[in-house]
Queue: 3 jobs
Job 1
Amino acid sequence: MPFAQIYMLEGRSEEQKKAVIEKVTQALVEAVGAPVANVRVWIQDVPKENWGIAGISAKDLGR
C-alpha cells in the first residue's frame, strides 16, 4: 500500500488539497502499479511560524 506524506505551508484551499491528493494518487498508480484503492495520501499543514527558510520563518518572510 503506497503512502505519500506531504508537508505544505498552511493556507491552501480545500480545492488545492483535493487536486494534490488526486494527482499524487494517480502518479503512484502509474509509477508502481498500485490499485487506486490502496493509495493513501496525507497532507500535513504546517504553521508558517514553524517553517524555516534560510534561517527565517516563512511567516516573517511573508509567505
Note: The chain has one helix and four strands.
Job 2
Amino acid sequence: MRFVIVTGMSGGGKSTALRMLEDAGFYCVDNLPVLLIEKFVELIATPEGEVTRVALGLDVRADQAFADVQRILEKLKGNGYTFEILFMEANDRTLLKRYKETRRMHPLSPGGRIEDGIRREREVLGSTRMKADYVIDTSNLLTRELKEELDRIFVQNEKYNSLIVTILSFGFKYGIPADADLVFDVRFLPNPFYVDELKHKTGNDREVQDYVMSFSEAHTFIEKLADMVSFLIPNYVKEGKYQLVIGIGCTGGKHRSVTLANKLYENLKDKGEYGIKIAHRDVGQSI
C-alpha cells in the first residue's frame, strides 16, 4: 500500500493536492483527529484491505498540538508502517495574499494578525518540512502545473525534482519581479521595437528571434548564462532550495527578454534533475 501524508503551510495548497490525489485514485481523508490517526492506519493497512493508495491530510490547528501528530508518525514508523510526506509550501507574501482574498483567519492567530500566524506555523512545521520526501512550492505554480507535478510523482512514479526553475521574461518599465532570485538585463542588445516590421511582434515570433540572435553578443550571453546557471543549480539543490526564479529583462518585456528567455529554456531543459518552466510576464502588455 502506498501511504502519503499531505501536510504543509495553511494556504499552501494541501486541500487542492488532496483533491487531485483523490482524482488520481487515492483514498483521501482530511483533518482526522489526532487520536484517530494510529487506529486509522492500522485499519487501512490490513493485508486483506482493498485500498492500495491512501492520502491523509494533516495540518496545524488551534485545538491540538502538532507535536502530537509528529509523535504518532514516529510511533507508526517504529511499528513498521511506511509512508511518504508531501509538504505543501508557499512564500509568506503569497500566503498572505491568499488569506486576504478568502478573508479567512489563520488557525494559529484567530482574530489576530495573519503574519503572526504564518510565522508561528513555520516554527511548528519546521522539523516536518525537513523530513518531507517531497516539498512543492505553489507560490508560482498554476493549478495545471501542480496537477502535472503530482501526477508525475504519484501516478507515473517518476523521479521527484526537488528544485523547480522558472525562467521569467519581463519589462523593466513594469518593475522587477518581486520573486526573482537572479535578474539579468539584456538591454545591451539592439531593440527590435525600433524596426517597423518587428515592433508589433514578440520574442515568440521567428522574425524577432532571428533579429535578436543575429548579434554575436546574444549567443555569447546565452552561452555564459547557461554555463553559470548549470553550475548554480546543483548547489542550490544541495542547500535545500525548492524554487529558483531567473528573471531576464528588457525595456518592455516583449522582444529581447522573451527571445533570450526562450533560448535559455531550450538550453537548460532535460539537462538535469530539476523541473523547469518558462513564463513571459509582460509579453501581452500594449505598446
Note: The chain has a mean pLDDT of 90.
Job 3
Amino acid sequence: MDSLFAEYEPKRFEPLAVRLRPTSLDHFYGQEKAVGKGSFLRAMIEKDTIPSLLFYGPSGTGKTTLAGIIAAMTHSQFVVLNATNAGIGELRAIIDTARKTIQNLQQRTILFLDEIHRFNKSQQDVLLPCVEDGTIILIGATTENPFFEVNRPLLSRLRLITLETLTPEAVVKVLQRALTDEEHGLGKQHIIATSEVLREVGLFVNGDARMALNILEQASAMLEPGGTLTLDILERVVGRRIYSYDKKGDNHYDTISAFIKSMRGSDPQAAVYYLARMIEAGEDPNFIARRIVICAAEDVGLADPQALVVANAAAQAAHLVGFPEAQIILSEAVLYVALAPKSNSAYMAIAAATNDVRHYEHGEVPAHLRDAHYSGAGKLGHGVTYKYAHDYPNDYPNGYVKQQYLPTALKDRIYYEGIARGREKELLTLWSERTGGKTSKK
C-alpha cells in the first residue's frame, strides 16, 4: 500500500489542491487552536511522540493535510486507508505488518484512517487491541460527530482534535500561496488578484480550502498569463452569483434583520428567501438556528409553544447533519415560525419584571412564602399561613389559591398581559376562570 503522502514530483494533471498540500506546519493556515504554538498536538508532532488521534471537522479544513504533515515530520511508517473501500482483511494485514516493524526495526506504524465513521462496529472493534497496546498509532478523520459515529471504547482511546471551519482570512492565505508558489502552484502565470476578490471566494466556500483552490484553478484556466482575477470570472466558474456578504459587516446584519422581521411578520415567502440567501452566502447554520429559536420564543411565544420545540429540535438536527441537508431542516423551522400565530407576552413580561428588579425597591419575600423546612422557621412566622394548593380541591377547584405572592411593595404590579391568539387564548380562558378575570390584549 503506497502512502498518499510519499514524496513525489508534482504531476501535470494533479489538482492544485493536491499539489499545494503543505508538508510543514508553516503553511497550515487557520488552525492555530489545534496546532498553534504551545498547543498539545504541535508539541507531540515536534517531539515525534504523537498518541492516537481523531481529527473531527468539516470538509476542507485540513484533516488529510494535517495527517500528511505528521507523515512528513515523524519517523514512523505511515499507511493510509479510506474506510469507504477498506475491509477487515486489509486492516488485519496492516496490523500484522506493524507488529513485525516494531520487532524488526523498532519503528512505529501510523495508520491514517480517513472517514473512520464509515467503519461499522465490528471493523472499529478490530482496532481496539492494537491501539490499546501501541501496535499502531491510529489517526482517524471524520466529518461526522464522533460521539455518535465512533464506538465509545475506541473513542476513549483517541485524543480528539477538532478542526474549525476556516475563516475567509485563512482561505485568502491559502489562495495567495497558490498564486505565488511557482513550483507547486500558479506562480508562473503571474495572475493578479486583490485580497478583496480572494476574500469573496473565502466567504463563498464557507471555509472549505479544497473548494477554494479548485475554484481558483478553474478560474486561472480562463485567464491569460498576467491576467486579473475578477468576480465576473469567478461567477462564470461557479455558475452562480458570488455576492458580498461580510459576516461582520452591514450586509450580514441587514439580511439577518430582514430574516427575523419576515418571520415575525408572518411572511413565509420572504422568510425562506432570506434563509436561502444566508445559506448561499455561507452563513454558519448554527447562527441561523439560534435566530430561529429566539424568534420562536420572543415572537411566537405562548400563542404556539410548539414553535419553540420545533425550532430547538431543528437547531440540534442542523448541527448534527450539517449542510447541505441542514437547509431542509432550517426551512421547516422557519416556515413553522413564520406561519404560527404571534405573541410577545413572554418577552414583555420578563422585560417588565426585570425593569422592576433593577429600578424599584422590591421589598421582602412575604413571610408565608419563605423557606420553612428547618427547625425554628415557624417561630419566625415563615410559612405559617401558607396555603398549599393541593390541600384545597374544593375551595380552589382550578388550582389557583388566592394569597399574596408578590412582595408587598409590588403586590399590585402586572407583568404578564396575555394576548388572545392561538394556544394562548385557551390559556387565558383557564386563567380567567381561576382568578375571576384578568386583563388581556386582544
Note: The CA atoms of residues 69 and 394 lie 76 Å apart.
